[in-house]
Amino acid sequence: MAYELYYWDGLQGRGEFIRLALEEAGAEYIEATREPDDDGLGTDGMLKVLRSRTEPHPPYAPPFLKDGDLLLSQTANILMYLGPKLGLAPHDEGLRHVANGLQLTIADAVTEAHDTHHPLAAGLYYEDQKDAAKVRAHDFIDHRIPKFMGYFERVLKQNPAGDRYLVGDTLTYVDLSMFQLIDGLSYAFPRAMKRFGEHYPLLTALHDAVIARPNISAYLASERRLPHNESCVFRHYSELDKAAR
Fold first, then answer.
1. Is 228 among the domain residues?
2. Mean of the pLDDT values across residues 180-188?
3. Which pTM was predicted?
């Protein structure tokens, strides 16, 4: 039975972290909101689940995943569930929790990236908070990107199994998510990320190695991979970008 992934159609967003894992593993899945509104699929089907008064454990927001009768929400939680099933998690149970901790830290970075263009309120348009967004984005570039990326570079360097992967000695969903974080930041802040490879060579090598994987390479070249856009988590506004210190 195919997994059903629910996320807003037309957006990479937080759903992309899950797509990358499914694509790398060659798993059968349905992008539910790209299907017709029938049999619980489509955008209408997603909204029915979100607004349900009968679902025992309704999700707060997409992405969420259906695996048979099981309904799971939250990106990191979904990946922790899928990782072992897809062969993208450490075999050691303790390291699986380490992987989850890294994924949650990636989620923190994604939230902060989102808040560069919506620093005051998610319900306001970007145009209603541009001055605050510029202050927030420049602080993110000067302080938060270096802090997050310096940490992840150190995690790679100090991995007892070697510096090719963030946890353990084989690819996990966390490595795929790190690729997506770097890719998203590179789209949103091309000037700030211009010298990324000089400062973070191990992360750059990981990013490039993910791109070179056959299933990921095929996915990135396909129509299934949606482009970044200014309705998503990672947005490019030239006035928010600047060269890193």
1. no
2. 98
3. 0.97
